[in-house]
C-alpha cells in the first residue's frame, strides 16, 4: 500500500476524498507527493517519492486511469534506471493499493515544486521537436540533485532504498 499525498488542485481533479489517517507505506520508496503541472508540451501530473525524490510524470489526459498509469510509470522508470526486474516488480506490487491524502510537509512540497520546474524546463526544450518524451524527462531528472541544504540525487537514493549496489 502506498499513499499519494496530493495538492488540493489534484484532489479536486481526481475527484477523490482524502483519507484523514494514513498508514505507514509498505513500499520501500515510501509515500509520494503529487501535483498537476502545466508545461509547454501539455499538462502533467508530477509524482515524487518523498524519501528519495524520484519522480514520474503522467499526462493529465490519463487522469481517469491515474493509479494504473502511476504503477506502470514507476515500474518503467525503475527498469530504465537499471533496477533489476524482480526488485522493480516487488516494489510496484505495493502500488496496487493506492490511498490519497492531503500533503503534510511544506519542505517536500518545495522540493516537488523544484522537480516540477525541471519537467517544465524539459518541455520547453522540446518545443518544435514533437511529443514530450516523458520517459526521457524522468530518466534525466532522476540524476538531478534536490533538497538544499542536504542535496540528494534520486538515482542514488532509490538504489539505497531498494538495496541495489550503488557502486
What does this structure look like?
With 167 residues, the chain is an alpha/beta fold. Helices cover 41% and strands 16% of the residues. It has helices at 8-14, 66-80, 85-93, 106-125, 134-141, 154-162, and strands at residues 2-6, 32-37, 44-49, 55-59, 98-102. The chain starts with a strand and ends in a 5-residue tail after the last helix. The model has no long low-confidence stretch (mean pLDDT 93).
Task: Describe the SSE topology.
Layout: E1 2-6, H1 8-14, E2 32-37, E3 44-49, E4 55-59, H2 66-80, H3 85-93, E5 98-102, H4 106-125, H5 134-141, H6 154-162
Parallel strand pairs: 1-2, 1-5
Antiparallel strand pairs: 2-3, 3-4
Helix pairs in contact: 2-3
